[in-house]
Write a structure and sequence with these properties.
Blueprint (H helix, E strand, L loop, with lengths): L4 H10 L3 H14 L4 H13 L3 H14 L4 H13 L3 H8 L14 H7 L16 E5 L4 H7 L3 H7 L2 E5 L5 H5 L6 E3 L10 E4 L3 H4 L18 H14 L5 E6 L9 H4 L15 E5 L18 E3 L7 H8 L4 E5 L2 H8 L4 E5 L13 E2 L2 E8 L7 H13 L12
Length: 400
């Protein structure tokens, strides 16, 4: 049996053939306007085309037809959040826990061990004597982005414990406040309630004009700063602008095909005068640094960055960071470093629409594709942000 128009809509979308996807999607809902899956698939394709209002309308139709289906609710959330309709968007965002394949926030065996009360999701009310477990439930970038809510939660719950991956522990531990962290469920103490870190914006009623400041006081370890200061001063020429580069995210990310690019696409940076490039790239794309040819010197630090603690220390030695939508963008922004983020045409919801800046990170500039796959304009904007900023040269008197 040949695929239906609804199926072809999703197939073509995944192939990046968005015009064809929309044609199939519209034909599917015209032929069967009572099929929730058809409206859902069309809504996803329209989101990728940045027809956000139309995408929201499709997902609302799908939700009316299939109120218990999590997919349309979650896609509706993304459209609402992207378009700054956060009050409703946060409510719909909670449907992510019902998506197929999404594991429970806390393993059932752990909840059973800690008793019935531990199963209670925190509703934002004070827990003056009890322990609250906050779980860093999403990717590294999400954890960094939402960690800004830890002081707000700690003001309501004195006994706060953060469950996170070992990779994120250095970041959480670098925050003032001395938050207790656990990286293994067996380490978790008894707790009265729990919440996902990514649920805190909704619990605190965050709006685009009320985003808390990013990670106040986040600092790299002084010993690592000293070591990396000496290392970079020995590797890089004096008086050169230092620009950190990250051109690819984790290949396992669902949208990596759209958000990542080859190092070669950043060629406009390769000929900048008095500029030294510093690769912070990790993962398979790191190998591209070995094939770099350009007049601007490039130092590949990827193999030496053993943890985010090292990355934090290096970021403080740079004048600017240029990166795709990955954890380094969040880390650099959270630390207050000038950062140019390259965004695909249909960005993740957190970057909103049509903005050159973001309420999440005041020192970050956003450089967007004008059409799917068109990086040239975004890269030119990032070059202008780097070369036009009021940068101090690397022969910094404070360190020489």
């Amino acid at each position: 049996m040949p695929p239906s128009d609804s199926d072809l809509c999703e197939i073509r979308r995944r192939e990046g053939r968005l015009d064809e996807a929309a044609v199939h999607g519209r034909r599917a809902v015209a032929l069967d306007p009572g099929d929730a899956a058809g409206w859902y698939n069309l809504g996803v394709a329209l989101y990728d085309r940045l027809e956000v209002a139309a995408s929201i309308a499709c997902e609302r139709r799908a939700v009316r037809l299939a109120p218990d289906a999590p997919g349309p609710h979650f896609e509706l959330a993304e459209g609402l959040l992207l378009s700054a309709q956060w009050k409703e968007g946060w409510r719909e965002y909670d449907w992510r826990w019902r998506l197929p394949g999404v594991p429970p926030l806390i393993p059932p065996a752990i909840l059973e061990r800690h008793g019935h009360s531990a199963a209670r999701s925190w509703d934002g009310r004070p827990l003056p004597e009890d322990t609250l477990l906050l779980v860093a439930d999403q990717g590294f970038g999400d954890t960094i982005q939402f960690a800004r809510y830890l002081p707000m939660a700690a003001a309501l719950c004195r006994n706060l414990v953060v469950a996170c991956s070992p990779d994120m522990r250095p970041v959480i531990r670098s925050l003032p406040g001395g938050y207790r962290t656990v990286t293994d469920w067996e380490e978790a103490p008894p707790f009265a309630a729990h919440a996902a870190l990514s649920s805190l914006p909704g619990l605190f009623g965050t709006r685009p004009d009320s985003v808390p400041p990013p990670l106040p006081g986040l600092r790299a370890e002084p010993e690592r700063v000293q070591r990396w200061t000496e290392r970079l001063d020995g590797l890089l020429p004096r008086g050169y602008r230092r620009v950190g580069l990250v051109w690819a995210g984790r290949p396992t990310h669902g949208n990596d095909r759209n958000r990542s690019l080859p190092l070669a696409r950043l060629a406009p940076f390769f000929t900048l005068e008095k500029t030294a490039l510093v690769s912070l790239q990790k993962g398979p794309a790191q190998a591209e640094a070995a094939r770099y040819y350009g007049t601007s010197p490039l130092v590949d630090l990827g193999p030496e960055l053993e943890s985010f603690a090292d990355t934090m220390a290096v970021l403080g030695q740079l004048d600017h960071v240029v990166c795709v939508d990955t954890a380094v963008a969040h880390l650099a922004g959270a630390m207050g470093h000038p950062t140019a983020v390259l965004l695909p045409y249909a960005p993740d919801w957190r970057w909103l629409l049509g903005r050159s800046g973001t309420p999440w990170y005041p020192t970050v500039t956003l450089h967007r594709q004008p059409a799917p796959g068109r990086w040239e304009e975004a890269i030119r904007g990032a070059v202008a942000a780097v070369t036009g900023s009021n940068i101090r040269a690397s022969g910094r008197p404070s360190r020489r």
